Amino acid sequence: MKTSNPGIQSVACGDSTATDDRGNLRRETHHQVSQEIRREMRLEMRKRRRALPASTRAAAARSLASILSRKRILRPGAHIAVYLAHGAEIDLAQVITRARRAGCRLYLPAIVSIEKGSMQFVRFDAGQPLRRNRFGIYEPELRTSPRIAVRRLDAVLLPLVAVDVRGWRLGSGAGFYDRRLNHLRSGRRWRRPKLIGIAYDFQRVPILSPQPWDVPLDAVVTERAFYPSHRPFA
Q1: Nearest of 170, 216, 223 to residue 196 by alpha carbon
Q2: Global pTM exceeds 0.90
Q3: CB-CB contact of 148 with 121 (8 Å)
Q4: Do residues 123 and 93 touch, judged by C-beta distance below 8 A?
């Protein structure tokens, strides 16, 4: 199967063969093939996002906020983690405004350790001072902002690079979200928080080969629709 871009194929299974610079056959492991395809997909999807006109981005952000409101994600008293857009990701400013008007309590991810790839979710209030982290993304000051246990969140709105129909997400590659949400990976004992990917519709692809540490999404919302994935969303 191919993705929406003819130049990128979905991740294949098994080993493959290729020819080195001397014309000799060499075997490539599934992991090597998978990583190369994921790298190419990241490059392609980011390029397509950057190419969108400002008017298209703004319209997508408005539409997405309306869809989330209609789906009752932004309900009074809900604890919701959002993100601040970076690198041509869909801007959640309108979602944040609607959520605050609806009486939601909002939170942002904040990096605890680059070396360990760890982060926490911390309170995000209107007018709260923010600082740039090492990746240039704004986040609250971790030392002075109240934290919330991840299982107390009702929903997490996650940025992504690509996502398939089963809810497998291709992120930036740093793994911060997967580590913080790893309690959802095994056994499905914990049902909170619900994980909702935020994407442009073209970022949906037929199939991704998940990594062992990946955590699947419950749903994806784009400027066109709300797409539940293989995990039930209630």
Answers
A1: 216
A2: no
A3: yes
A4: no
